[in-house]
């Protein structure tokens, strides 16, 4: 199977999720700095969620430059990823309305964790779908960063749930920053 329909579908879901995020932005009730400060949780939730979605899309797009063949497993693994992506605007709204509360921040962190896990799953499935694609298999053979991401997020969820809920959102932000530059190995070795 070719990848063009899968990437178009994925691009559409990411675009819709980003659109939902921006449509949820509240406008200040007046033209004062105090009014802007009152909607800070909306803006913080938007910025972090926009960054997370943008980085995931960037890396997905970057990775699929190397993909030549996909199969049904890849389609389902990608559907799992975009399912988790579609949940992020909902999680962002939940956090926005309940900043510094344990349950909303845990839900948001869990969505981020599932996004990371589903992206890792997609990595693994892509490598198996096209074992002859040496470029792809070399690029996806880097589980350490993804494993670190998942373990760190699980730890943050536990600590945040017990002691300090904001640690969950802060950890999500810090972890996504480790992915902000797409895989340099792909660019360096293969000119993508």
TrEMBL record:
Subcellular location: Membrane
TM annotation in the entry: 7-25, 37-58, 70-92, 107-126, 147-180
InterPro entries cross-referenced by the UniProt entry: TMEM175-like (IPR010617)
The reaction(s) this protein catalyses: K(+)(in) = K(+)(out)
Pfam family membership, one: TMEM175
Entry keyword annotation includes Transmembrane helix: yes
UniProt protein name: Uncharacterized membrane protein
Membrane topology summary: Multi-pass membrane protein
PANTHER family: ENDOSOMAL/LYSOSOMAL POTASSIUM CHANNEL TMEM175 (PTHR31462), ENDOSOMAL_LYSOSOMAL PROTON CHANNEL TMEM175 (PTHR31462:SF5)
Keywords: Ion channel, Ion transport, Membrane, Potassium, Potassium channel, Potassium transport, Transmembrane, Transmembrane helix, Transport
Species for this entry: Fructobacillus cardui
Family that this chain belongs to: Belongs to the TMEM175 family.
